[in-house]
Amino acid sequence: MIQDVKFVDIQVGDKASMSKTVTEYDVYTFAGLTGDFNPVHVNAEFAKTSMFKERIAHGMLSAGFISAVLGTTLPGANTIYMGQELAFKAPVKIGDTVTATVEVIEKIEAKNRLIFRTVVTNQEGTIVIDGKATVMKK
To answer: Which residues on adjacent β-strands are paired with residue 100?
Structure first.
């Protein structure tokens, strides 16, 4: 269910999150949608020779889960994504369960803008993505 939290009801410190187990299907679908067929993502034999020793998910696939939280939960419907800073801290492997969490860190009343800290962690609690998002909310 998509929520629509009104700007007036959002407070600094509000949080929301979602979790997803990353599957082989997710990685191949993302590659097909974006055209990013980097062999570290889609070729097991090649990936064995990489620094990760196995295939990893696209970083932007995991970053997409941040978008899902912002667009469906907090703030939800009528959210306009204006910017995102990302730092990729650790790889996401096929089978990892990642949790994207957003937290309001600033509210700019005059422009109906919200600044969020955005973090994606794996099932071990390791931060795989750290960042900051700016959105506009009606």
So the answer is: 18, 120
Cα(first)–Cα(last) distance of the chain, in Å?
19
pLDDT score, position 61: 98
Helices (H), 2-100: 24-34, 39-42, 44-48, 59-72
CATH number for 132: 3.10.129.10
Comparing CA positions, the residue from 90, 58, 59, 74 lying closest to residue 133 is: 74
**Domain ranges, residue 57:** 7-137
Binned average pLDDT, 10 residues per bin, the chain of 138 residues: 94 98 97 96 95 96 97 96 97 97 97 97 98 95
